[in-house]
Amino acid sequence: MSIATAQAHPNIAFIKYWGNRDDNLRLPVNGSISMNLDGLFTRTTVNFSASISTDSLLINSKSITGKGLDRVSYILDLVREMAKINEKAEVTSENNFPAGAGIASSAAAFAALALASSRAAGLTLSEAQLSVLARRGSGSASRSIPAGFVEWQMGQNEADSYAFSIAPVDHWNLVDCVAIVSSSHKKIGSTEGHAIAGTSPLQNARVTDAPRRIEICRNAILKKDFEAFANIIEHDSDMMHSVMMTSNPPLMYWQSATVEIFHQVREWRASGLPVGYTVDAGANVHVLCLGEYAKDVEKRLREIPGVSNVLVAGVGGGARLV
Ligand code: PMV
After folding, report:
1. Which CATH superfamily is domain 174-313 in?
2. pLDDT of residue 227
3. Residue 13 Cβ < 6 Å to ligand 1
4. Which residue's alpha carbon is nearest to atom 4 within ligand 1?
5. Whether residue 281 has its Cβ less than 6 Å from ligand 1
6. Is 3-170's fold the same as 174-313's?
């Protein structure tokens, strides 16, 4: 087979990945936990052909060159090396959600690329191997390979830094209501952010404490303890943003509406509505709730000034061939 199509969901991190111990291999300084987002997806087709002279990339019908294409070719090179082929490839990709706005478009993109390119090259990789390959494109992409609720173990080396499912899609009816505050492309992407994370004096404390937060978060998910879950995801998100704000140069991803949503979410929770927030490297706020409250939460978020849209996503499956 020289052509294959794969689809993957983005994921939202509950315990965040921020900073690498090896930037080139994307080996993280701490483990992380996430959930895949159903309904949002990237679908990618890879076609290796002897009649093509260079790799090419089309995202949502737009031709991409430069750094974007280089990152894709980097993964294609790893696949060519494993499969012992040297054909160049045509990569065509479509997203159904805004890119570069804290909805981890690169996670879905590199997970779909890892699966489609390896299959198109004739390889059948295990889930762990696919997760490693996706990780090389974007760390968080390692978590979009397995289904449902996922943990990425930091590992000791290149081969054992991969993600696995800790609970299946139907384990817990959690819903992510993503309040869109800004859909513009962020100025400093996560690749540059990871590289400067260590310049914050708070990063060491965040990393040292990570195993504790992972344990609490994993247990909260396994026991479906929403209160413990909401408390730990907010705490972890606030810790990552504290590192971002105190790095050199400082990164401030929040907008005023982002902070307004934090206040509202905490008030709603205090008055009995099970909700909790988390924010990736952008201004948009992911408000997690139990499925039965999603309509109410969506309506409340839409009423907050500065919120231009709300995307609603349940728990998503793993990357798959289509
Ligand atoms: O995978 P990257 O390099 O785009 O990094 C993702 C970083 C965060 O989204 C901020 C946190 C995470 O764990 O997804």
Report:
1. GHMP kinase, C-terminal domain (3.30.70.890)
2. 97
3. yes
4. 190
5. yes
6. no
Per the DSSP assignment, residues forming a β-bridge with 311 are 178
CB of 139 closer than 6 angstroms to any ligand 1 atom:
yes
| Contact assessment for residue 261 and residue 307, using Cβ atoms and an 8 Å cutoff | yes
Tell me the chain's radius of gyration from C-alpha atoms.
19
Residues β-bridged to residue 275: 289
Give me the CATH code for the 3-170 domain, please: 3.30.230.10
Q: Tell me how far the alpha carbon of residue 16 lies from the centroid of ligand 1, in angstroms.
A: 7
- pLDDT at position 188, please? 84
Domain ranges across the chain:
3-170, 174-313
| pLDDT for 101 | 47
User: pTM for the full model?
Assistant: 0.96
Q: How far apart are CA 315 and CA 117, in angstroms?
A: 25
Question: pLDDT below 70 — which residues of the chain?
Answer: 1, 98-104, 183-186
Q: Please tell me the distance from the alpha carbon of residue 66 to that of residue 224, in angstroms, as a whole number.
A: 45
Confirm or reject: Cβ of 17 under 6 Å from ligand 1.
yes
